[in-house]
């Protein structure tokens, strides 16, 4: 599968998930993500404004790929986070991009999709949030993947919500537009309050299940297409904790248009229920 096909699938998946507007906006992103609006050219960065992650920086960070031919880099279409040795959390709209568990694999064990340490694991079952797209489009954008066999990486804690969100980090292998590097990028993104986010996206924010982050004034730092499903994290008492899942945004890293994330603390108990079912 080449990059072009991957892109088409991604847009298709977005439309299915009710992300038509977002997907359309994407065609305009390449020119203005991290450069002045009149500048032409591809993204330099993946996660916008970030830098390559070190091995071991986010051991739980995984890539979702399509089953089949091609390198992991070519097959990658979303991100995810390992929350138990056999369960990965991702976005519902990522899980909906495949017809079933046979069509998706998980790549773990390295930030570099070309690394020999990368492990490919098959998926046995998929749970998509029952209330995905309720009460409004893109609300409850989370899903769980049950792995065929355990992965040997440190899981991230989804237990509690930190009191302060000032040092959020997000990471992933999102769209570059140039398709060269294979190493995940990470970036620090300022927390955006529910009020500010609702002002940025009137009638599109379900504050109960969405969390926003980005530099509202200047833009420049954000997740982007292909990072979906991956983590946004905050320091907890005992290492980093998962506070959100990359979900959507208008463009990427634009001033006034923050990134929107599924707010994990709001569906903690629903996650626990599925974990119990699967244990
Ligand atoms: N929906 C995108 C995906 O499927 C993620 C977009 C995130 N956008 C943003 N501006 N933070 O990969």
UniProtKB/TrEMBL annotation:
Segments traversing the membrane: none
SUPFAM superfamilies, alphabetized: Trypsin-like serine proteases
Domain Peptidase S1: 47-279
UniProt protein name: S1 family serine peptidase
CDD domains: Tryp_SPc (cd00190)
Organism: Glycomyces rhizosphaerae
Keyword check for Signal: yes
InterPro entries assigned: Peptidase_S1_PA, Peptidase_S1_PA_chymotrypsin, Peptidase_S1A, Trypsin_dom, TRYPSIN_HIS, TRYPSIN_SER
Domain of life: Bacteria
Keywords associated with the record: Disulfide bond, Hydrolase, Protease, Serine protease, Signal
Endpoints of the signal sequence: 1-33
Gene3D superfamilies recorded: Trypsin-like serine proteases (2.40.10.10)
């Amino acid at each position: 599968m080449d990059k072009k096909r991957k892109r088409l699938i991604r847009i298709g998946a977005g439309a299915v998930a009710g992300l038509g507007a977002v997907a359309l906006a994407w065609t305009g992103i390449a020119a203005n993500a991290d450069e002045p609006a009149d500048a032409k050219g591809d993204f330099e960065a993946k996660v916008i404004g970030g830098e390559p992650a070190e091995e071991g920086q986010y051991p739980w960070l995984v890539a979702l790929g399509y089953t089949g031919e091609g390198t992991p880099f070519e097959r990658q279409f979303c991100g995810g986070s390992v929350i138990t040795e056999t369960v990965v959390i991702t976005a519902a709209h990522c899980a909906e991009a495949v017809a079933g568990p046979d069509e998706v694999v998980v790549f773990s064990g390295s930030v570099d999709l070309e690394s020999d340490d990368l492990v490919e694991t098959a998926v046995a079952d998929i749970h998509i949030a029952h209330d995905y797209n309720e009460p409004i489009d893109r609300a409850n954008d989370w899903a769980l993947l049950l792995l065929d066999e355990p992965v040997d990486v440190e899981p991230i804690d989804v237990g509690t919500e930190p009191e302060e969100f000032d040092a959020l980090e997000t990471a992933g292998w999102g769209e570059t537009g140039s398709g060269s590097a294979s190493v995940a990028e990470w970036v620090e993104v300022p927390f955006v309050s529910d009020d500010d986010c609702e002002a940025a996206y009137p009638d599109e924010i379900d504050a109960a299940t969405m969390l926003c982050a980005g530099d509202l004034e200047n833009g420049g730092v954000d997740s982007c297409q292909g990072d979906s499903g991956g983590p946004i994290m905050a320091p907890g008492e005992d290492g980093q904790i998962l506070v959100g899942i990359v979900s959507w945004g208008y463009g990427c890293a634009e001033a006034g248009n923050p990134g929107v994330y599924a707010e994990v603390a709001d569906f903690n108990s629903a996650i626990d229920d599925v974990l119990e079912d699967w244990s």
